[in-house]
Amino acid sequence: MRWTDIQDIAIALDEAHPEVDVVNLRFTDLHAWVLALDGFDDDPARSNEKILEAIQTAWLDERG
């Protein structure tokens, strides 16, 4: 996975962290959790607030 795989990241995060309050999470935590996902292979410096917000939104949608 890469930073552009927003939906795949959201699904993987939901499976890895089902107990997390997605609305009130810190982007520093979100960034670290994405980097720790199995199959994630992208430059950590390529993320930014816009990407992290998109991941958070997709994760919220995943919880539906």
Describe the protein.
This protein is mainly α and 64 residues long. The chain has a single domain (6-63), classed as IscX-like (Arc Repressor Mutant, subunit A, Orthogonal Bundle), CATH 1.10.10. The protein is 56% helix and 0% strand. The chain has 3 helices and no strands. Helix 1 packs across helix 3 (49-63). The longest helix has 15 residues, at 49-63. The chain starts with 5 loop residues before the first helix and ends with a helix.
The low-confidence runs, each spanning 5 or more residues with pLDDT under 50, are none
Estimate percent helicity: 55-70%
What is the total tally of β strands?
Answer: 0
Give the SSE order as H and E letters: HHH
Mean pLDDT: 97
Chain-wise SSE layout:
Elements lengths: L5 H11 L10 H10 L12 H15 L1
Brief write-up:
The chain has 64 residues and is mainly α.
What keyword list fits this structure?
3 helices; mainly alpha; Arc Repressor Mutant, subunit A
